[in-house]
Structure formats: C-alpha cells, structure tokens
Amino acid sequence: QVQLVESGGGLVQAGDSLRLSCAASGRTFSRYTMGWFRQAPGKEREFVAAITWSGGRTKYVDSVKGRFTLFRDNAGNTMYLQMNSLKPEDTAVYYCAATIDNLRLLPTPTRMYDYWGQGTQVTVSS
Q1: 91 Cβ partners below 8 Å, 6+ apart?
Q2: Could you give the CA distance from residue 24 to residue 40 in angstroms, rounded to a whole number?
Q3: In the 8-state DSSP scheme, what is residue 88?
Q4: pLDDT (average), residues 8-24
Q5: Least packed by Cβ within 10 Å: which of 47, 48, 49, 88?
Q6: Mean pLDDT, rounded, for 62-77
Q7: Is 43 exposed, middle or buried (0-12, 13-18, 19+ CB in 10 A)?
C-alpha cells in the first residue's frame, strides 16, 4: 500500500509558475513509476506526465512539453511537478499516482495506476 498526498496548488495568473509536490508513504517509494494526472470540470481525467522509479526517464503530454518538468527525490519520498508558463487551460485538479512498472513503459491510462492522491487544485486566470 502506498499513500500519496499532493500539495502546492493555488490560484495564479497566466504566465506564472507553480511547483506541485507528491509525498509518498507506505511501501518503498523508489519501486514505483509515478505520474501526474489532471481533471478539469466536466472533463475526464487525463495524463500529464510520468517518471520511472529511477528518475531516468520521463514522459509528458504534448500540451505541457517544454513548460512542465517532472522529477523525484527517492530519498525524500517525494515527486515534484514544476509548472512554468501556466495557461488558463492548465486549470484542473491535479492528482499524483503510482504504479509498479517493471518494464519502465511509463503508462498513460488512468487504469494502469494503482494508488492515487486526493488531488490539489490549480487555477490559472487569464
């Protein structure tokens, strides 16, 4: 069992930056591929980014490439999502998630992730 807690959301203006954190407890954090997803009102939850257990590989949805950076601190059991040049369309509840990913495929479907946090709201005003 892994418990995940997100933090760092808030209300910002377009062009601003935010750093989201995902703190993990329970089973060994470093064994899991970690991901960020987001869900805007009236829309399905969508993949944003994922990182392998070692931090050596990452994957991003096209809409955030070049603006968001995902990294992790296994010693501190924490994953971070640095979000720069935020846009109003980035407004959503952001969730972190964890999965065993032995082949390091960095899965994107929500169903592939076993553990989820409660979410943190990010609102970007124009």
Answers
A1: 40, 122, 123, 124
A2: 24
A3: G
A4: 97
A5: 88
A6: 95
A7: exposed
**According to the model, what pLDDT value does residue 117 have?**
97
52 neighbors 107 (Cβ within 8 angstroms): no
In DSSP notation, 22-65 reads EEEEES-GGGEEEEEEEE-TTS--EEEEEE-TTS--EEE-GGGT
- Averaged confidence pLDDT in the chain: 94
For residue 42, the Cα-to-chain-centroid distance in whole angstroms is 20
- Rounded Cα distance, 82 and 100, in Å: 23
d(CA 28, CA 92): 29
Burial class (CB in 10 A: 0-12, 13-18, 19+), 54: exposed
- Rounded to an integer, the average pLDDT of 29-58 is 93
C-alpha distances out from residue 125 to 12, 14, 69, 92, Å: 6, 6, 21, 12
